[in-house]
Amino acid sequence: MTVRVPSDIYEALRREAKARGISMNQYVAEVAATHLGMPESMPNVDSQEAIPA
């Protein structure tokens, strides 16, 4: 899937994923799952910080 977002949003996503030590793909998937009310659909990884709802 290709998603186009404004450069400022892209950079914010990149920084946040890097700060969490995960890929942008993983971070965006977690944000989407949380936003859609489906956080249980994401695999649990002990080293990751939960994303607040």
Task: Please explain how this structure is put together.
This is Toxin-antitoxin system HicB family antitoxin. It holds the Pfam family HicB. It contains two helices and no strands. By secondary structure, it is mostly helical. The protein has one domain (1-53). Helix 1 (7-20) packs across helix 2. The longest helix has 14 residues, at 7-20. 4% of the residues are buried. The model has no long low-confidence stretch (mean pLDDT 85).
Computed over alpha carbons, the radius of gyration is: 11 Å
Write down the domain tally.
1
Amino- and carboxy-terminal Cα gap: 24 Å
Shape: globular
Overall pLDDT level: 85
Question: Approximately what portion of the residues adopt beta-strand conformation?
Answer: under 5%
Question: How would you characterize the largest beta sheet?
Answer: none
Based on secondary structure, the structural category is mainly alpha
What is the total tally of β strands? 0
Order of helices and strands: HH
- Give the fraction of residues assigned to helices: 40-55%
Number of helices: 2
Contiguous uncertain segments of 5+ residues: none
Keywords:
53 residues; mainly alpha
Please specify the SSE layout and strand pairing.
Layout: H1 7-20, H2 24-35
Helix pairs in contact: 1-2
